[in-house]
Amino acid sequence: MKVLWLAAHPEERSLNGSLKDEGVRALREHGHEVQVSDLYAMKWNPVVDADDFDHPSEERLHISNAAERALSNGTLSPDIRAEQEKVLWADTLIVQFPLWWYGMPAILKGWFDRVFVKGFAYGFSDPDTGATLRYGDGPLTGKRAMIVVTAGARPGTLGPRGVNGDLNDLLFPLHHGTFWYTGMSAVPPFLVSSADRTTPAAFEDTAAQLRTRLLELPTTPPLPFRRQNSPDYDPETLTLHPDLAPNLTGPAIHYTDAPR
């Protein structure tokens, strides 16, 4: 595998930092190539503005169009382009972060905001049918992604009946709205619960589990999302046909194994 490890934690000596080091070491020891984007260490700028696109200050800024134009004419900010080159190089993306207020840290959200621009991660159509290529058919199709997430929540509380909600529902915007939207297949996430109460023995066990998950990535079945350009959705309204998952709403209906 060619792996881009995207990390977002401000303390290198943290549980996240230690797990990153363990994961990268395991992958390299087994012959996989790894590049690391440690956003805090890089002092990554998460804020989208006109400087990203060398956009004239006197003109109204339309983000998606300005980004696409800058990408095409070579004026996209060099730090963005460097990250895009890493994404293009990789066949696997590991996204690691602590769960803060039910989401990813702002610096990581800003990485996606700035890097996954129109003309790179979305904005393409099928030349034969004119169908928009997204949700399973995007420009990053063929790549895999896995989230490694730590949480202070106790085991079970990020489950289907847990008070914190189901983890896959919480991660749906990233799994479905970012990975799958751009064509990447998302495999089930790796969750570390009770992160702020980890003991040395628990760390060793967690690190061993992470190493196993990483080495099994090429054969791990991805989350079974429905493709937008499949018969499951009405092509005009892009809504799921009423006979599919008729008793469900929300994220669950977008999995192919949802009850029919």
Automatic annotation (TrEMBL):
Enzyme class: oxidoreductase
Gene source species: Streptomyces rimosus subsp. rimosus
SUPFAM superfamilies noted in UniProt: Flavoproteins (SSF52218)
GO molecular function terms noted in the UniProt entry: NAD(P)H dehydrogenase (quinone) activity
A Pfam family of this chain: Flavodoxin_2
Name the UniProt record assigns to this protein: Glutathione-regulated potassium-efflux system ancillary protein KefF
Keyword Oxidoreductase tagged: yes
Gene3D superfamilies registered for this protein in UniProt: 3.40.50.360
EC numbers: 1.6.5.2
Family per record: Belongs to the NAD(P)H dehydrogenase (quinone) family.
Stretches assigned to the Flavodoxin-like fold domain: 1-213
Alphabetical keyword list: Oxidoreductase
